[in-house]
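Task: complex structure prediction.
Instruction: return structure tokens for all chains below.
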Amino acid sequence: MATQTDPRTDDGAAADDESGPGEIEARVGLRYTLKQVKRDTTARIGIYTVGFVTLVALLAAIDYYLFDYAVAETVWYNPVQDPDQVQRLLPPVGMENQYGPGVIEHPMGTDHRGRDILGRLFYGTRIAITVGFMATGIGLVGGTLIGAVSGYYGGWIDDVLQRVTETIYAIPFLVLVIAFMTAFGRDLTFAMIGVGITSIPVFNRLIRSRVVSIREEDYIEAARAAGVKDRNIILRHIIPNSFAPVLVQATLQIGVSILIVAGLSFLGFGAQPPTPSWGQMLSASRNYMLPAPTFSLFPGIAILITVIGFNILGDGLQDALDPRINN
Amino acid sequence: MGLLRYTLWRLAQSIPVLIGIITITFFLANQIPGDPVEIMLGPSPAQEQVEAIQARYGLDRPAHERYLTYLAGVASGDLGQSIYYDRPVLDMILLRLPVTLYLTVSAFMFAIVTAIPLGVLSAKRRNKPADHVSRIVSLIGVSTPSFWIGLMLIIVFAFHLGWFPARGLPLPWADPADIRGAETQLEVIRTSLHHLAMPMVALGTLQMAQITRIERSSMVESLQGEYVKLARAYGVPESKIVRKHAFQVAQLPVITIIGLGLSTALGGAVLTETVFEIQGMGRLIITAINNQDYELIMGTTFMFGVAFVIGVIITDIAYAYIDPRVAYGDE
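Output:
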């Protein structure tokens, strides 16, 4: 039987589907979440946006790993192969600037080295989505473990862990990641790890407060009395019960991570040229803002759409999963 | 506990965090590959020169010894010597910090002044057009990179319309002799505000959006409170309910988000300063990193931490001021 305090996640929701009227609906688990999200218009828009961007990233990744840019090169002219015909800083189709009119081959124009902006945006999606998910994943796993252990055991373990995460939080995270990358490496891998570490306190705080409140619930008492190991209580009962708020936070955090990594790339920390990333495109565009303003325009819009997608999805999940706001 | 004792207690509490910040930055700075002496003297310098420099900056001693010396130095207000600028780190920071604080504080003022009315309006007209507009504005605000807003502002308002200058930020209390085109102090202030407008908006938009969101949801909740229902039942006018009954209670979460937003804003200042070529702390740390100036990297990172910790303490005190239960310790 599924009740509101059922510690099981998927099983709980599955049982709920067959339950007759009068049963209390399980408010945890993936299936319940999906059902709620389908009802919520905002969340649906978020899912479509995120889905679209992720699909683009996936296509870019396939082209990159399996075909070595071959597909893109047949669609988008790549001047690196043919330096004589480079058309630098062209405007989008239908516009004209001092470098000439926009051409249909480059619908969004070209950059300072004559590369197609749309093509580079396409590949930048791969970087953005990868860093967004990876950095959030690191923060999620680290923060969940620290928060769960800290909240469950309390005492000096809690004190030490909380002071350490508080300290990490006290250094403005962009500054911390820059210092971290200076020490260990300026490339994208360390950007992801650095941003992941700075997001640990966010998840830590969330999970810890959940654990502290769940710890005293009857079913945890029961599990403990039945001799279930601490580790299993945390992994099987406490963490699954914090599923909803963590999912919301993680979705929002992906957007935040994409913004931070774009900022890092803008400062020269992150994806190194010629790898196309949105932040680095914006950084390059700074020198051409007067003759070719659209060069600065499009990468920003790409970031905006992607991050809005994750934010709408996060908000939608929140509305769908929080019965107080929902009613 | 009174407000003063609460303040002192909060200050004392921040000491371990500050030591933690120093430890983290020292550890990171120690990991930085490359040799600062080589950057200073160029490749293949004379052995005596290298040793002299190493001895002067203490680079010849083991790490733990340098850590303790550094910690003792910070405690007595000495942040070490910048190798690149050949000046005390503290001097460099004191030169740059006012600009960053001026920018960050202004950005917060802009954010608060725009966000609170917007959030209250949104809550009052819940699910009406005004609410939708405000929610879309704040959604875009939290999703836009601040440096890109800066670039767009420069393109439109500096390059095309010519309304605002694209770079630099003179301080309002600067000497008129140092500012081009300004003869009196009043003109310096005007020039300064003129330069401030765009970076302030670029940096403050994210804060504005975040505060609007919290203000809205907090006001929505507050307007559903029992005391509001009671006031309505007594026939208190709706505008007075919003102003007198719901507003103050709703500000607690807003203050929390302002405190947490400080970290984002100080970090964002690095980007804003880069976009607008402002010589503040953000540019200082980037210069320090590019020149492998260890003590300057540690000093600037530490100062960013200090600025954040002080900001959080101020918000905590504001919190205690609005909700006295916090200072008196009964929750």
